[in-house]
Design brief:
The protein is mainly alpha-helical and about 150 residues long. Helices cover about 95% and strands about 0% of the residues.
Length: about 150
């Protein structure tokens, strides 16, 4: 029995030594794996922080989008409200443009006619004016002319 126990003890001791040696040989690999796990945990934490920042940015963007959509709706409503006034103003502008053009054309035509008339008869007009001036100077002043001059 003692011999069986001694062999069992020797076998267990060899087995323990083999396992201890295997553990010692696996220690560097375990350290590498632990370093990889630590790196992955750091990456995970960084990814979580990035995800949170991205989520905040997304929410802010959604709020901005909603605000822009509301502003667009409000602007479209104001455009619809202003449309009748704009059309009325365009009509008034068109009418005023036509009236201005007619006014300018009429006055320009009158100017051209007067210019042509004046160039055609410059001597006759000067002679007629001179005779009118003589007539006025030689006429006696009437009471109506004195009253008009005094007013």
């Amino acid at each position: 029995d003692a011999m069986v126990v001694a062999q069992l003890q020797e076998g267990l001791l060899k087995r323990c030594n083999a396992l201890a040696e295997q553990i010692q040989q696996g220690a560097p690999a375990a350290a590498e794996r632990q370093a990889a796990v630590d790196g992955a945990m750091k990456d995970l934490e960084a990814a979580k922080v990035h995800q949170e920042k991205t989520a905040e940015t997304y929410l802010e963007t959604q709020k901005a989008l909603t605000a822009c959509q509301d502003a667009k709706k409000e602007a479209e409503q104001k455009v619809e409200e202003a449309e009748p006034t704009l059309e009325s103003a365009k009509k008034v502008l068109q009418e005023a443009s036509v009236e201005l053009e007619n006014y300018q054309n009429y006055n320009w035509t009158c100017f051209e006619e007067l210019k042509e008339h004046r160039l055609a008869e410059p001597e006759a007009a000067t002679t007629a004016e001179a005779s009118e001036a003589k007539d006025v100077a030689t006429e006696p002043l009437t009471e109506a002319a004195v009253a008009t001059a005094g007013a």
